[in-house]
């Protein structure tokens, strides 16, 4: 899958970032942080179902599910004091929501490097987002087995 073949929502998110000056990209990331969807009660009431993303500096927990219509949903939680991490989780949660298992698996592993934030945030933060995407894909592969 090439960058032009990204699922529409992820392509739109990437394009939104790339259209901005580098300094304004952090502001957009903060907007995403504020838009991280809340956990549905079935996960909020059972945090033990969520998996820690240990590669992230901040405590990020996530769960990937495939619904009865074969649509993928990524649920994540991250502290408000960690807006970069929350923003990355929100981008993935919103960008992958409703895609098929195969569409998510086809997202390039380096997607986090393509949204224009590699100079604005630390490499460690980008690796955290890359780890979230990799963990999502791993969960989907395990579920397909």
What is the multimeric organization of the chains shown? single chain
CATH class assignment = Alpha Beta
Task: Calculate the mean pLDDT score and round it.
Answer: 92
Count of helical stretches: 6
Radius of gyration: 14 Å
Number of domains: 1
State the helicity in percent bands.
40-55%
Low-confidence stretches: none
β-sheet strand percentage: 5-15%
Distance between the termini: 23 Å
**Which fold name is given in CATH as the topology?**
Sufe protein. Chain: A
One letter per element, helices H and strands E, the order comes to HHHEEEHHH
Give the structural class: mainly alpha
Return the CATH architecture.
Answer: Alpha-Beta Complex
Which strand order spans the largest sheet, edge to edge or round the barrel? 1-2-3
Family: Belongs to the SufE family.
Organism: Cryobacterium cheniae
InterPro entries: Fe-S_metab-assoc_dom (IPR003808)
Domain Fe-S metabolism associated: 16-138
What does this structure look like?
This is SufE family protein. Residues 16-138 form the Fe-S metabolism associated domain. Belongs to the SufE family. With 145 residues, the chain is mainly alpha-helical. The chain has a single domain (3-144), classed as Sufe protein. Chain: A, CATH 3.90.1010. The protein contains 6 helices and 3 strands. The chain has helices spanning 8-18, 22-34, 41-44, 83-96, 101-105, 123-144, and strands at residues 51-52, 61-66, 72-77. It has a 3-stranded antiparallel beta sheet with strand order 1-2-3. α1 (8-18) packs antiparallel against α4 and α2 (22-34) packs across α4. The chain is globular and about 40 Å long. The model has no long low-confidence stretch (mean pLDDT 92).
């Amino acid at each position: 899958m090439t960058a032009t073949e990204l699922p529409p929502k992820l392509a739109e998110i990437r394009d939104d970032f790339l259209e901005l000056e580098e300094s304004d990209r952090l502001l957009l990331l903060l907007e995403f942080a504020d838009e991280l969807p809340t956990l549905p009660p079935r996960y909020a009431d059972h945090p033990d179902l969520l998996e820690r993303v240990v590669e992230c500096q901040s405590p990020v927990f996530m769960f990937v599910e495939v619904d009865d219509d074969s649509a993928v949903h990524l649920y994540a939680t991250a502290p408000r004091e960690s807006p970069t991490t929350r923003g990355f989780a929100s981008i993935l949660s919103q960008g992958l929501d409703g895609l098929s298992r195969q569409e998510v698996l086809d997202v390039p592993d380096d997607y986090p490097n393509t949204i224009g934030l590699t100079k604005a945030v630390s490499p460690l933060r980008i690796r955290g987002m890359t780890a979230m995407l990799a963990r999502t894909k791993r969960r989907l592969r395990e579920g397909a087995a």
